[in-house]
Specification:
The complex is a heterodimer of chains A (about 350) and B (about 230). With about 350 residues, chain A is of the alpha+beta class. Chain A folds into 2 domains: about 240 residues, P-loop containing nucleotide triphosphate hydrolases (Rossmann fold, 3-Layer(aba) Sandwich), CATH 3.40.50; about 120 residues, RNA polymerase II/Efflux pump adaptor protein, barrel-sandwich hybrid domain (OB fold (Dihydrolipoamide Acetyltransferase, E2P), Beta Barrel). Chain A contains 9 helices and 21 strands. In chain A, β1 and β2 form a beta hairpin. With about 230 residues, chain B is mainly alpha-helical. Helices cover about 75% and strands about 0% of the residues of chain B. Chain B contains 10 helices and no strands.
């Protein structure tokens, strides 16, 4: 279990804006993802835990050991922290073979055990055949597996991964995810992974911490966070939702209902506890929860008229993009149905409406 | 060259010996300086950097004069040397080594510093993360990564030592058979009207320098397969 409270301030320079990281989070077993856009401070947090960066203040605890304590002046050297680190560029030593790369990590272990350990690790990660090759002679997947094997061979208490999926094509990403699942099963090492990719987050994370401008703005399981983002900024980070500014016109806890005003239209939603009539709020709804119908005269209950601007083919669905920034996901293969017709009515299912 | 006169090869051997020893010393001192300048932040770094570069821009006579004052028989360092080795340092071949050292180290430091700075920081971070001490990181990771550049820098330093004239003349003098290096011997030969000897030595020195530069260029290309980046 890692518990971290990290404060780090960078003053603005002539060619750089200032930045301040003020972050508090904890991560237990499994995979915890630090999620945020670039510049949110994710890698800085990871580097502070690894000991590459010394925070100004705070405290970092790994299990029972203090890695950093600003008040007590404790700042363990990276080599004393027992945190494996998988670098974004793998950082495999180019002048060593794959086996030598792994041996480097266990040089302090007794010679006999060392050889066995390396051989076992090479086998586990299917690298035995290429153990004598240099990194530049390996495929992307092999390099990736080697960097994970090298980080794990010293039996770290925590594995840190810095944007490991960045720049990988789809098959490599899939392979990488399966390697991480294998690591979770076979090694049980807790992992802290940094990413800005929602797909990666959904595929790997047990828990996620959302970072924005150096602060943790939300944490929880990916399902919970994606379903109910803490605020409109978090929702925008995911790029998932239709965000509409609405006014609450009525609230009825008895019938679990509310009426919301969006431009000139009224929508019925569920009851929103803790809100008042007249509140201006952001309404969001997932694009796959919306449906569309051809527009005939006045829109029906919970429908809003909209003009279809374009359709975008995606692998898993067809995205219809409407005026007002509304997106609707419909099954693939229905594109003909939407070509040529511009005017549609979008139906908002009451129980799927969320507000921020 | 008058018929029957033979060429004195001593200056060439002396130059090679002086250059070899001073390059070895320059490697020890220069690598440490280059690594410090590339990796450490400390007060006075700019001054140290400038001081290391100074011999590159100062006239050799000025550098020679400083060394003469610093290492002369009246100076504390000169006296210490005399007490330790039983004879003065100035006007010996060892003084020529010191002259070469000051003449060539700045070049080595400049090239080696650039090489150290070009090493991807993630390799060093990875090594530290994998339990390496700073010393092991240097010997096992940083130095092997830059070894070709460092060898090239050493080759350049060797070539520069071979060509030193002014500083050597100032502190080692021009004693034939004892401190006369090849560049001074060439000057002497030209002055003395021995054109043939001068021509031969000029050709040998030029060929040596050309060979060393070619070697240095080869060393700095294609270090670890097609790419040296971390990927």
């Amino acid at each position: 279990m890692i518990q971290a409270r990290i404060r780090k301030q960078y003053a603005a320079g002539p060619d750089s804006a200032g930045f301040s990281l003020d972050l508090e989070f904890r991560a237990a077993a499994g995979v915890t993802v630090l999620f945020g856009s670039s510049g949110a401070g994710k890698t800085l947090a990871l580097d502070s835990i690894a000991g590459f960066v010394r925070p100004d203040e705070g405290r970092i605890l790994l299990d029972d050991e203090i890695l950093f304590d600003g008040a007590a002046g404790v700042h363990l050297a990276p080599r004393a922290r027992h945190c494996g680190y998988v670098f974004q560029n793998y950082a495999l030593f180019p002048h060593m073979t794959l086996r030598q790369n792994l041996e480097f990590a266990v040089e302090r272990a007794p010679r006999l055990g060392r050889h066995r350990q390396v051989t076992e690790m090479l086998e586990k990660f299917h690298l035995s055949d290429v153990a004598g090759r240099r990194p530049y002679q390996l495929s992307g997947g092999q390099k990736q597996r080697c960097s994970i094997a090298r980080a794990l061979i010293g039996a770290p208490r925590l594995l840190l991964l810095d944007e490991p999926g960045r720049g990988l094509d789809a098959p490599l990403k899939a392979e990488f995810y399966s390697v991480l699942r294998q690591v979770r099963q076979e090694f049980g090492t807790p992992m802290l992974l940094v990413t800005h990719d929602t797909g990666e987050c959904a595929a790997l994370a047990d828990e996620m911490v959302v970072l924005r401008e150096g602060r943790a703005v939300q944490s929880g399981t990916p399902r919970k966070v994606f379903e109910q983002p803490a605020n409109v900024d978090v929702a925008r980070l995911f790029g998932l939702y239709n965000l509409l500014q609405v006014e609450i016109r009525s609230l009825d806890p008895g019938r679990n209902a509310s009426r919301l005003r969006y431009q000139d239209f009224e929508l019925t939603g569920p009851y929103f506890p803790g809100r008042l009539i007249g509140d201006q709020v952001w309404l969001f709804v997932r694009p796959d929860r919306l449906s569309v119908a051809p527009r005939n005269g006045r829109p029906a209950f919970n429908q809003i008229p909209a003009t279809l601007l374009r359709t975008v083919e995606k692998i898993e669905c067809l995205r219809l993009e409407f005026s007002g920034g509304i997106g609707v996901d419909v099954p693939v293969g229905e594109s003909e149905k939407y070509s040529g017709v511009k005017d549609w009515a979008i139906e908002f299912p009451s129980q799927d409406l969320r507000i921020l | 060259m008058p018929p029957g006169a033979s060429i004195d090869w001593f200056p060439l051997w002396l130059s090679l010996r002086v250059a070899a020893i001073s390059t070895a010393l320059a490697l020890a001192v220069g690598l440490w300086l280059a690594w410090t300048l590339a990796n450490r932040t400390f007060r006075g770094k700019e001054v140290l950097d400038a001081a290391v570069t100074l011999p590159l821009v100062l006239p050799p006579t000025v550098l020679g004069y400083y060394l003469l004052v610093l290492l002369g028989r009246a100076s504390p360092i000169g006296q210490l040397y005399e007490w330790l080795f039983g004879g003065p340092l100035v006007f010996t071949w060892q003084a020529a080594v010191v002259a070469s050292l000051f003449h060539s180290t700045p070049l080595l430091v400049k090239s080696a510093r650039a090489a150290f700075e070009s090493v991807d920081r993630s390799y060093e971070r990875a090594a530290r993360n994998l339990g390496a001490t700073e010393l092991r990181l240097f010997w096992r990771v940083t130095l092997p990564l830059v070894r070709r550049s460092v060898l090239a820098a050493a080759a350049l330093a060797f070539a520069r030592s071979l060509g030193d004239f002014g500083v050597t003349l100032m502190i080692a003098g021009n004693i034939p058979g004892r401190t006369q290096t090849v560049s001074i011997a060439i000057y002497d030969a030209v002055e003395g009207g021995n054109g043939a000897a001068a021509r031969l030595m000029v050709l040998i020195v030029s060929a040596l320098a050309l060979a060393i530069l070619t070697l240095a260029n080869r060393l700095t290309s294609n270090p670890f397969g097609p790419r040296q980046t971390a990927l």
